[in-house]
Amino acid sequence: MTRDFIPFAKPDIGDAEIAAVTDVLKSGWITTGQKSSEFEKRFEALLGQGINAIAVNSATAGLHLALEAIGIGPGDEVILPTLTFTATAEVVRYLGGDPVLVDVDSGTLNLSPERVREAITPRTRAILPVHYAGLSCDMTAILAIAAEFGLRVVEDAAHALPATHAGRMIGALDSDVTVFSFYANKTMTTGEGGMVVTRDPELAKRMRVMRLHGIDRDAFDRFRSHVPAWYYEVIAPGFKYNLTDIAAALGLVQLDRLGSFQDRRVRLAARYYETLADLPLILPSWGSEDGQHAWHLFVLRLDDEALQRGHTRDALIDHLSAAGIGTSVHYVPLHRQPYWRDSLGARAEDFPVAEKAYQSMVSIPLFTAMSDDDQEHIIGALRAFFA
Fold this sequence. Notes:
The chain is an alpha/beta fold and about 375 residues long. It has two domains: about 15-100 and about 110-255, Type I PLP-dependent aspartate aminotransferase-like (Major domain) (Aspartate Aminotransferase, domain 2, 3-Layer(aba) Sandwich); about 260-385, Aspartate Aminotransferase, domain 1 (Alpha-Beta Complex), CATH 3.90.1150.10. It is built from 15 helices and twelve strands. The chain has helices spanning about 15-25, 35-45, 60-70, 85-95, 115-120, 140-150, 200-210, 220-225, 245-255, 260-275, 305-310, 315-320, 340-345, 350-360, 370-385; strands spanning about 50-55, 75-80, 100, 125, 150-155, 165, 170, 175-180, 195-200, 280, 300, 360-365. The strands form three sheets. Strands 1-9-8-5-4-2-3 form a seven-stranded mixed beta sheet, with helices on both faces. Helix 1 packs antiparallel against helix 9 (about 245-255) and helix 3 crosses helix 7 (about 200-210). The mean pLDDT is about 95.
């Protein structure tokens, strides 16, 4: 008897989420409205006093709104890691800016503050750190560099809910803007969606207007008011980035479960550490005592011993696939992607840490709906590969 295939990721959806979405479908209002507003308020409460939250239809949309709001424009440079998804860089291009790719730290695979400092030029306007796999970047160092050079900071926290740095939640630090993702494989999900947070009320106001066509009033206010409220004004050439109430209803239930999701992810990560530590692998950084890892991803790297023995990343992926286990690679670095390589003149030798990591890395399943038996099968398959 063959066992079921274990996917790389799977959303954890229960009866409460289904009931919440059904209630919205029956309500007569399914686009941006009261549920989206409630979702924003609950997210603000999670992060603490002074936070403004703006719900959007993707983290990519949120990053675009954030960079537009801080004034990124043609010719401006934004520093970001090469080891990230293309969305982190493409939003800079949306505004006519130039992404500046830098290498990552060999231990955490996060943006290297040293490489950031080296990349600053007179055209640099912002730093865009990515909290890789759910582990916070060294935000103390990055924020200090930003303050020294008068730069803005927008955090790509797509992996990082509910990560912390120096005892504070990501999203509640002193950056200009932080952007979270609720894509289907993230630590909580709305199917597609994201949240932009900022302490700056003016940035929040700009992003709210630009989120929906540059209109100064939401559709819910215009269509559901008890008094005639049809008039609106377009005050900027905005975008179509709003989150629906259907998605927000799902998000509200998922937000209630975020604590239990985090506990489960930590237990799964700890079990991997316990059972894989003796293999020729580089396990992901656990983080510091005052920083909580969100454990969105569990990224293994073959160490030098494994590579010298002839093991390869691709052979490991094939082995796990034959055992009914889904995997992924995070990421093919941007300096290897044809558009970014050619348009930025990026060379692999300029990114030795990311390049070496890419050649040996594989992301194995880590999701809250995974059973203990599933995890034991994954562990057994990994051990069998090296045996």
